[in-house]
Amino acid sequence: MTVMLSKNEIKGIKALGQKKFRDERGVFVVEGEKLVEEALRSGWKVEAVYRIEDIGEEVMARISGLTHPSPALAIVRQPAPESFAMSPDELVLALDGVRDPGNLGTIVRIADWFGIKKILASEDTVELFNPKVVQATMGAIFRVKVHYVDLAECLRCRGLIPIYGTFLEGDDIYRAPLTRGGILVMGSEAHGVSPEVATTVTQKLFIPPFPPGAQTSESLNVAVATAIAVSEFRRR
Predict the structure, then answer these.
(1) Cα separation of 118 and 146, whole Å?
(2) What DSSP letter does each residue of 124-149 carry, written as one string?
(3) So what's the pLDDT on residue 2?
(4) Who contacts 212 (Cβ-Cβ below 8 Å, separation ≥6)?
(5) Which of 95, 99, 131, 216 is the most exposed, fewest CB within 10 Å of its CB?
């Protein structure tokens, strides 16, 4: 039996593609069978689930934000913000001005893969509930907490916890001493780590090209660099 959605319901779901309406209603959209199932298992409040066999292809195409609508779409309640805390032996990522939704989503997925449960994000980092970010996380959004903070101020309050950052003038990450826990700062795609945040970094790291001194690309994509750096921390 086909479920009928009113024009206002369709308009309301479609509006969630904009941050303004996500913020007003405190919800976000999840699309795709896998992501919807992840949402239902997560313990987050799922307010509605729409399946193509129930509402029909035409309506799903109207409410979907994807080029090719998926078989399932859910409206999920955003969790209440939590204060940030960490243990000395915990590895945490900090993102300074990461603007690309695909990069943020991929970094959340990388964190999930490597057992990192918390990410600090500067206030100018792209919004976690942006549909492109949500899609790129592939479900990791439900397992990794992202805290939006005044990043420089937050890092200045970390006491004796080591703060690492990736820089072109840093120490070779494969030779530098690394601790089990700490905060790893990754900078924006265009400008790297900002000067204010850089003052909080206690050790600068560099991912060298191979072979050393070879003429290569100017820099690595921030998500790729994050994966390489986190992998080296875990390898130790």
Answers:
(1) 6
(2) TSPPTTSHHHHHHHTTGGGTSEEEEE
(3) 59
(4) none
(5) 216
Distance of CA 188 to the CA centre of its chain: 13
- Burial zone of 51 (CB within 10 Å; 0-12 exposed, 13-18 middle, 19+ buried): middle
Average pLDDT over the chain, rounded to an integer: 94
Residue with tokens 């990461």: 98
- Show Cβ contacts of residue 98 under 8 Å, excluding neighbours closer than 6 positions: 104, 107, 121, 125, 126, 186, 188, 189, 222
Token duo for residue 111: 């964190």
- What phi-psi label fits residue 18: left (phi over 0), alpha (psi between -120 and 50 degrees) or beta? beta
CA 28 to chain centre: 15
Q: Using an 8 Å Cβ cutoff, are 49 and 73 in contact?
A: yes
Interhelix angle 222-235/101-113, nearest 10 degrees: 10
Residue 62 carries which side chain, given as an amino acid letter?
R
Whether residue 30 contacts residue 76, with contact meaning beta carbons closer than 8 Å, is answered with yes
pLDDT of 109 higher than 70: yes
Q: Look up residue 195 and give its two tokens.
A: 């000067």
Mode of pairing for the β-strands spanning 72-77 and 27-31? antiparallel
What is the edge-to-edge ordering of all strands in the sheet holding 27-31?
27-31, 72-77, 46-51
143-176 burial code (b ≥16 CB/10 A, e <16): bbbbbbbebbebbeebeebbbbbbbeebeebeee
Q: Is the pTM for the entire model greater than 0.70?
A: yes
131 or 211: which leads in pLDDT: 131
Residue 186: its pLDDT value, please? 98
Query: Rounded to whole angstroms, how far apart are CA atoms 140 and 102?
Result: 13
* CA dist., res. 62 & res. 44, Å (int): 25
